[in-house]
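Why do we care about 3D structure at all? Because function follows from shape, and shape follows, mostly, from sequence. That is the central idea of this module. The next example makes it concrete: a single protein chain, its amino acid sequence, and then its structure expressed as tokens.
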Amino acid sequence: MSEIFPIRYVNPVYRPPSEAESLILPVTNGCSWNKCTYCEMYTAPQKKFGVRDEQETLDTIRHCGEQFADQVQRVFIGDGDAMVLSTRRLMTLLAAIKTHLPKVRRISSYCLPRNLRHKTVQELQELRAAGLSLVYVGAESGDDAVLQHVSKGETFESTRDALDKLGAAGISRSVMLLNGLGGRQLSEQHATNSARLVNLTQPEFLATLVVSFPQGEDRFRQGFPQWEALNQQELFAEMAQFLQALELKRTVFRSDHASNWLVLKGILGAEKERLLQEVDNAMHRPESAKLRPNWQRGL
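And the structure:
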């Protein structure tokens, strides 16, 4: 490892937008599933999945503490799904973070629902007590047909079970859904069942992205040949249907990823009507909606 910066990264490195100021600590490379056809994050040859050597991870944390102990307040554990690690290994690295980076106030990670099937609520409670306070769950859709077409490897029930376990353990959940993932054919059921998933689990955070394929659609269409992309108006209509169906008590909602034409931010359900009005403006009065031009969408 470099004496200047003690972390060995394997590019490309990804993190959620809200982790922009976090120390990115890789404990795995890539994603243990890596079959989702809409996802291009871990398809590069150098991102083949693997668990990092435990001693390397502990040495990394110690070296970071030697250089940045007074600066680091947030840690994001990467790559695609650190929760694939055993509870013992996760507890060991959380203890090391507490020892060497004592000013850290938030530790977070991506999480595949499948990686919680063999973790109990008690184990998750132990991880929460050790410092893991937030996980990002890419649900993508609550509709089983959509999930099957995109090779997600999850179902409505498997995602619901994982979110319920996390909630019972006191770990905050940030759920991500993909606007347009079902295409024209499955748009309605994608919106309806995604809302049903969120209503039943009441996550603390909710985000939507627009499905996009910067590297092309060939891989995606192999499993979903009938998929037709939604145009801008259809994406707004699907978003309106989704928002209308939500029955949330208090969830922080963000639809501000670079892929979105329309930026939406609010608390659901308190600001549901305002958000619906903003979507309606985008559909019927786009000149007043401050839509992102296509070149700004970071695709």
